[in-house]
Amino acid sequence: MSLQLGGHVSIRDGYLGAAKSALRMGAGAFQFFPKNPRSLKLKSFDSRDAESCRSFCSAQGLISVAHTPYPSNLAVSSETEPMLFRQVVDSLRNDLEIAEACGSIGIVVHFGTFKQGSPLQGYQNIIQCINNVLSDWKGSAKLLIENQAGDHGSMGMTLEELVQVRKLCDHQQHIGFCLDTCHAFASGMWQGATDKKFADKAEQLGYWDGLCVVHLNDSKYPVSSRKDRHARVGQGYIGEEGFRRLLQMDAIRKSPLIMESETGKDGTYREDLERVRRWVEA
Length: 282
What we know:
The chain contains 11 helices and 10 strands. By secondary structure, it is α/β, with parallel strands linked by helices. It is globular.
């Protein structure tokens, strides 16, 4: 099976420029920020550039995914912070529209952080936010919920949470998952090379049915550290053996695999892409 491997690339030369830079480094997939990653400010994007990106990717067999800005918190309360809630909803909808125009499979957003009260209220906030974003969405781009490491709280660290939130939302067909391997390792969701339960549990819960993309990141800290610090693949605590075992799972190999760690000396992920391909081919 041919892996859809790639990395996160800049849009400083536009969406088409991002696609071309991904192709130059030998990638079959790439991730990009649809707008300023530090702000929820809406972007009036160049539709011609987005359409050029879509056409180029289609012609070259490239798969793309967008990553929402860091302030996008699905768990924000519509009651105590109504203005921020509206900002998050509108920003995510803006991201979906950009992703759709670029032909991307969806927008990755972190599970959410809520520290003002009961976790149950946090889950309810997440569901309400997602329902608002997708209330009349007709596009093919999906909202992709990413698991969390645990460095900002305990939410989003388990397969059960991810699957249950998706089940309780109104528009499941527009919702998928992004599995971050560093986050999964840091949270203890996945134990790396020694893990014996993750794959079966994911199958039993129906998690694999919603998996759309994988962030292929190693970890600078040991398992269950709850620290979100990415390392280059094979150079952290997950290590080569951990990734070799992960890549034996059909659902993983079928998904676009995106790297978000530091790049090689040439400023690209070319070296890391080649390393992963050797692991699979060996």
